[in-house]
Amino acid sequence: MPVRVLLVGAAGVFGRKLAEQLVCERGVSLVLTGRTRAKLDALAGELGGGCGVAPMDRNTISANHLLPLSCDIVIDAAGPFRPDSTALVSAAIDAGCHYIDLADDREFVTTIGQFDAAARQMGAAVLAGASSTPALSHAVVDALIDGWSQVETITVAISPGNRAPRGLSVVQSILSWAGQPVKVYSGGRWTTAPGWGLTHDMDFPGIGSRLVSLCNTPDLDLLVERYKPTQSAVFLAGLELRSLHRTLELTSRLVRIRLLPTLAPFARPARQVAALLQPFGTDTGGMVVEIAGRNAAGQTETARWSLTAKGGKGPYVPTLAALALVRTIRDGGLSFKGAKACTGILTLDDFKADFDRLGIETRLERL
Fold this sequence. Notes:
By secondary structure, this protein is α/β, with parallel strands linked by helices. Helices cover 34% and strands 26% of the residues. The chain folds into two domains: 3-131 and 315-358, NAD(P)-binding Rossmann-like Domain (Rossmann fold), CATH 3.40.50.720; 133-309, Dihydrodipicolinate Reductase, domain 2, CATH 3.30.360.10.
């Protein structure tokens, strides 16, 4: 029997990319869901793979909505992900389904363990953050430091191409913490720095220099928790257009000096401005993971892994961890039961075939 997947937010930016790939997977039966029936029907018609359609609202969903669908896996690609918005997690567990999401909200992902006992009781896996962070970033770090005796610094950075589509929930998430004090491990201790601060140029191999700033993601906690760096662990993000990046940086200062409590109410106009500028820049996105520490021989070493996604393939990257997990569950390879952030579950090899299929270039350097 095929594994049956309910994809929430299927008509969104990342949901659509994931649906395109899942419908091509052998042994996978896909059901599309979201709040708008017309959008789901249109997507099902585009995919042409006999997908089911079941409109529902993730914020009011319960196990009673899921049980008639007989799904094995629920994937949330919708958001926004907030600690007070966990109805779908509970519904999936109560219905005996595995739950996977593409969340990048720091508190949501790091507190997902609250569902561990319930998930274990139902024999389900609940995995939050099956996306570029923390699933892919940790798979990369695991590969880079294999055999190392000590990690000193970890830097993860992501910069999408300016022509990449931007979902409203992503814009809302960024503006919610831009300018706010963000807890970060730096200089061997926990301190705070302004969200979208610490701005500087960073080299993305195969792309060039782009501005990056501090991004409030789960990795700020999880990288420290898993790898115990002695000096620092930071996650940075950047906008390709320097003018757009600097505008957000300057606007965030209004929050820093308390002229505004938050930028979140400006998400829709900010998205509209970004849409007007979308023809500029490129469709090339990049990711860098750079680590310094000591190898098995105790020698100082720096390793860097980078990704270059050309031709508009960047938006597929955040979906690849969820895709890999569906395959693992389908093939009976997931032994984990319980609830946790999606770290230590996937390896870098789990992403390789999809990188190759999409024409996404990666490189590993020992500096």
